[in-house]
Write a structure and sequence with these properties.
- This protein has 162 residues and is of the alpha+beta class.
- It has a single domain, classed as Nuclear Transport Factor 2, Chain: A.
- The strands form two sheets. The chain has a six-stranded mixed beta sheet.
- Strand 7 and strand 8 form a beta hairpin.
- The longest helix has 23 residues.
- It starts with a helix and ends with a strand.
- Pfam families: SnoaL_4.
Length: 162
C-alpha cells in the first residue's frame, strides 16, 4: 500500500471519529443514524446477539431496554490501514450504566462498577466513505453489580456469572 502520510493520518482520524460517532448514536438511542454508519452486509456481535446486515442490527438495537442509560469512554485506540479501502481497529471501552436513567433529565446513580471491554472493528470504504463492516465486543471484566433497594435503602451486591 503506497499512501501518502497525510492520507494515512486523514483516514485514521476519520476512522477514530467513526468509532466515537457510532457509540454516541448508540448512547442516545439514535439507532437509525447509528446503523447508517455500517455497511449493508455488516456483521455485529456482542453479548446480546450475533447478526448480519443493517436491518438485523437495527432490530437488535430496537430490542434494547428503552430506559437503559450508558456512556462509553473509548481509549487505547489502534487503527491499521490494510489498503486504500479497508482497515481494522481496536479500542478499549469503559461503560458506565444505569438501567433506568434514559432519557437523561437529571444526574442518576451509576449502577455498579464500570464494565470494561474491547471493540474490534473492520472498516470498508464505500463510495468514498468509511463505514463499519464488522464490530465485535469482547467483554473483559464483568461480575459484580451494585443495586439499590427500591425503597432507597442500602446497596445490595449481586454477583453475576459471566
Amino acid at each position: 500500500m503506497s499512501l501518502e502520510p497525510i492520507d494515512i493520518l486523514s483516514a485514521k482520524a476519520e476512522l477514530s471519529e467513526l468509532m466515537s460517532r457510532v457509540n454516541r448514536h448508540y448512547e442516545l438511542h439514535e439507532y437509525t443514524e447509528m446503523v447508517a454508519l455500517y455497511t449493508e452486509d455488516a456483521h455485529y456481535a456482542n453479548w446480546r446477539g450475533d447478526v448480519c446486515g443493517r436491518a438485523a442490527i437495527l432490530q437488535l438495537m430496537r430490542d434494547r431496554e428503552p430506559d437503559r442509560l450508558v456512556r462509553h469512554v473509548l481509549s487505547n485506540t489502534v487503527i491499521d490501514l490494510l489498503n486504500r479501502d479497508s482497515a481494522q481497529g481496536l479500542c478499549y471501552v469503559t461503560a458506565y450504566i444505569n438501567h433506568h436513567g434514559h432519557p437523561v433529565t437529571r444526574a442518576v446513580a451509576q449502577v455498579g462498577p464500570p464494565a470494561f471491554a474491547e471493540y474490534h472493528f473492520a472498516f470498508r470504504r464505500v463510495d468514498g466513505r468509511w463505514l463499519i463492516s464488522r464490530k465485535r465486543t469482547v467483554e473483559i471484566f464483568s461480575g459484580q453489580v451494585l443495586q439499590h433497594a427500591e425503597d432507597g435503602g442500602p446497596l445490595h451486591t449481586l454477583f453475576i456469572q459471566p
